[in-house]
Amino acid sequence: MSVQTRAETAEPDAARPAGGAVGRPGPATPSRRARYQRWRRDRILVALMVPGLLYYAIFHYGALFGSVLAFLDYVPFLGLSGSRWIGLDNFQRLFGDADFWRATVNTLEIAVLQIVFFFPAPLALALLLHSLTHTRIKRFVQSVVYLPHFVSWVIVIALFQQVLGATGVLNGFLADGGLHTVHILGNPDAFKPMVVAQVIWKDTGWGTIIFLAALTQVDEQLYEAAALDGARPWRRFWHVTLPAIRPVIVLLLVLRLGEILSVGFEQILLQRDAVGARAAEVIDTFVYFHGIQDGDFGLAAAAGLFKGVVGVVLVYAANKISHRLGESGVYR
């Protein structure tokens, strides 16, 4: 009996975890061999990520250290350590500069036009492509609408000049018909709508990729049930398609608000001289001309820092609003 009692009492002690702790066992951690096998399996994907990570680390996160120029009377020959610290003097000069506020107004006007007219365009094109049933025609149309995204802005502006410029195809057609010619690209009043039209032509096809991916996740049975209930195409879009892709729309809108003050540097710089600085000056070109050409690095850095802070505030506010609407937004 004594031997049996000792054996029975020894079994719980043997099953007890080391250290004398009694309770639920902790989560199992992967062994070193399992981690090594996972690394061997995913090493190609990790290698493909390295260039992108280096790009963002150097040109985005590394460039943040240059924001200190906004608080210095920066002289390139003296460097950061030798330049004099002047605090908020650059911001005082910036906010007292009428050219900066004119550039800010132009930037906001173009940004609002892009949100109103360009942001819905990829969604509308994605719905049109999604409705095509013939696979070859669908692929052909997708390839055609994707192509302008890979064309540089220099070529895009040149194409628009050939069509809508003072000596372009449109004015040649009007002149041959004895009509009054118009120089659309040289008209300051038409500059902002023309900028938005160029963006729509160039990037609408590329913007449909995410929306097409979201539309493929919508259950087709929902469309069939709505059609059986007598729902017209507009009703099916409003009550089936839109609720299904609403998280994607909110996510892209929040990200777009973060870049609301980035309205296209190369595109506008190439057309700035044709319409003048009063109509075409934006924050990016303001930073370029004051920082690179005039050498006022402190003022240019202050303008760039102001732009970044506004973008962060807009993303944070839009993300909070999306949470109140029941969406996940960019982050929780």
Strand line-up in the sheet with most strands? 1-2
- Helicity level, as a percent range? 55-70%
Distance between the termini: 62 Å
| Total helical segments | 17
For the CA atoms, what is the radius of gyration? 29 Å
The biggest sheet, with number of strands, parallel, antiparallel or mixed sense and barrel status, is: 2 strands, antiparallel
Order of helices and strands: HHEHEHHHHHHHHHHHHHH
Beta strand count: 2
Low-pLDDT windows of residues: 1-23
The SS-based structural class is mainly alpha
What percentage of amino acids are in beta strands? under 5%
Q: What number is the mean pLDDT? A: 84
The shape is globular
Protein architecture, described:
It is a single chain. The chain is an all-alpha fold and 332 residues long. Helices cover 70% and strands 1% of the residues. The protein has 17 helices and 2 strands. A two-stranded antiparallel ribbon has the order 1-2. The longest helix has 30 residues, at 32-61. The N and C termini lie far apart (62 Å). Mean pLDDT is 84; it is low at 1-23.
From the structure above, extract its key features.
single chain, mainly alpha, disordered N terminus, 17 helices, 70% helix, 1% strand, 332 residues, globular, two-stranded antiparallel ribbon
Task: Give me a quick take on this structure.
This protein has 332 residues and is mainly alpha-helical. The N terminus is likely disordered.
